[in-house]
Amino acid sequence: DAGVIQSPRHEVTEMGQEVTLRCKPISGHDYLFWYRQTMMRGLELLIYFNNNVPIDDSGMPEDRFSAKMPNASFSTLKIQPSEPRDSAVYFCASRGGRQSTDTQYFGPGTRLTVL
Amino acid sequence: SQQGEEDPQALSIQEGENATMNCSYKTSINNLQWYRQNSGRGLVHLILIRSNEREKHSGRLRVTLDTSKKSSSLLITASRAADTASYFCATDGRDYNQGGKLIFGQGTELSVKP
Q1: One digit per residue, pLDDT tens: chain B, 114 residues?
Q2: What is the mean pLDDT of residues A28-37?
Q3: Nearest CB to B107: which of A33, A42, A101?
Q4: Beta-carbon contacts of residue B97 (< 8 Å; ≥ 6 apart)
Q5: d(CA B13, CA A93)
Q6: What letter would DSSP give residue A41?
Q7: Residue whose C-alpha is closest to residue A72's, from A21, A29, A18, A22
Q8: Residue B2 pLDDT
Q9: DSSP code at position A85
Q10: Which residue numbers of B have CB closer than 8 Å to A's CBs?
Q11: How would you label B52-62 residue by residue, b for 16+ Cβ within 10 Å and e otherwise?
C-alpha cells in the first residue's frame, strides 16, 4: 500500500494566486482529514469528510479556503486568493473506521510558501 | 484552541537515557493518542490509551493517563538517535457525533544525541 499520497510536495506561489493541494487517501478508507501545521498554531484540523461528504469544516479559516472530495480516492484543498499568512505545511490524513480509536494515517504533507 | 498542551517544548538527551514528555488536556476524553513526526514528514501513530486505562506499553514506549488530572505522559526508554523527532499527543472529545476527530497538542521536540 502506497499510503496517503499528497501533491505537490512543495508549492511556492505569489500572493493573490490560486493554490490547489491534492490528496489520495488509502484505498478503502472512508474518512479524510485536512490539517494545517504552523509554528505559531501547531497542527490544526481544517475539515474532514466521511464517505466523500464534508462533516465538519469549522476549522476552515475563511472563505478563501475550500475543499472538495469528488470521489473516494481524491480530495482537493483550494486557496483562492492566497496570502502570505497561508504559508504552512498542509497534511492530509485518512482513516478506515468511524471511531477515534481507529488510526489516522498521514500523508507527507505539502509545504506551501506564499510570497 | 488546542486541546492538548505539552511540555517540555524541547528536550535534549544522550543516547541510552530515558525521555519523558507530558501532555495536559482540558475536556473529557474517550482516548488519548501519541504521534511522532520526523522532520519534514507526516505524523505516525505510536500508541493509544483509552480513558479507562492507566498505563500502556509498546516496546520501549510507556504511556500513562491520569484522567483526574487530565494529563498523560510518554516515556521512551533507552533512547536512540533515531528517536529524534517531534512527539504530539492527540485527544478526541466525548461527543461521538464528532466522528472521532482529533485535536493535537503543540508537540515536544526531542533530540537524542549519539
Answers
A1: 445 678 899 999 999 999 999 999 988 888 899 999 999 899 999 999 999 999 999 999 999 999 999 999 999 999 999 999 999 999 886 554 556 678 898 999 999 999
A2: 94
A3: A42
A4: none
A5: 31
A6: T
A7: A29
A8: 45
A9: G
A10: 2, 30-31, 40-45, 48, 50, 88, 92, 98-107
A11: eeeeeeeeebb
Residue B102 identity (one-letter amino acid): L
Residue A1 Cα, gap to closest chain B Cα (Å) = 15
Chain A residues within an 8 Å CB radius of B107: 42-43
Q: What is the pLDDT of residue A40?
A: 87
| A:B CB pairs within 8 Å | 60
At A56, give phi and psi (nearest 5°): -145, 115
- With the CA atoms of A93, A99, A102 and A105 taken in that order, what torsion angle do they form, in degrees rounded to the nearest 10? 0
Q: Give me B52's grid cell.
A: 479507562
